[in-house]
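Technical annex, item 7. During the second reporting period the consortium partners agreed on a shared format for inverse folding records so that results from different sites could be compared directly. Each record opens with the tokenized structure and is followed by the designed sequence. A conforming record, contributed by the partner at site C, is shown below for reference.
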């Protein structure tokens, strides 16, 4: 049995991604459907994956943004209209598809607070290796694809309180008093 990692230190500076910002968008293959949704409760995605078996269908909610220096992860509150698994990915722009790191998450009808330290993300594809290249992250994606869902499936998820986080600053040592 693997030991659970220590909880991430999220007590430092936080940078929120507001649901009303123009940084939100969608990505999808040419046959799947993806629709950005905004509400007082946050930002989300309604999707239907293509049912074609000759390629890999996907639909993704994306946030095009830079991650502040010193950030060590992302966090958000999420829920879905039915139980589903998504891949949360970070992407560094390069020629072509870009470098990606990912982590799988589970959402259902209950609000869930999700904390993802960058150090716990896994490199995806041949271009990425090692830990995430945090200073060069340009996109955060919440991806529905056939890794976690059947072709032709559909769903909807909503995110709120999306933010990057940093550890709290170390407490300075107080000088020893002399007696």
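Designed sequence (site C submission):
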């Amino acid at each position: 049995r693997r030991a659970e990692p220590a909880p991430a230190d999220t007590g430092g500076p936080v940078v929120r991604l507001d649901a009303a910002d123009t940084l939100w968008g969608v990505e999808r293959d040419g046959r799947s459907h993806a629709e950005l949704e905004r509400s007082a409760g946050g930002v989300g995605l309604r999707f239907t994956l293509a049912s074609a078996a000759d390629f890999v269908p996907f639909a993704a909610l994306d946030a095009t943004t830079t991650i502040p220096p010193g950030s060590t992860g992302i966090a958000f509150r999420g829920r879905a209209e039915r139980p589903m698994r998504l891949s949360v990915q970070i992407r560094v722009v390069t020629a072509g598809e870009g470098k990606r790191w990912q982590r799988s998450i589970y959402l259902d009808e209950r609000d869930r607070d999700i904390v993802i330290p960058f150090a716990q993300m896994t490199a995806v594809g041949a271009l990425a290796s090692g830990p995430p290249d945090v200073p060069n992250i340009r996109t955060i994606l919440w991806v529905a694809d056939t890794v976690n869902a059947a072709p032709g499936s559909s769903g909807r998820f909503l995110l709120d309180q999306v933010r990057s986080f940093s550890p709290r600053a170390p407490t300075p040592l107080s000088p020893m008093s002399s007696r």
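The mean pLDDT is 86. The radius of gyration is 18 Å. All partners now use this format for quarterly exchanges.
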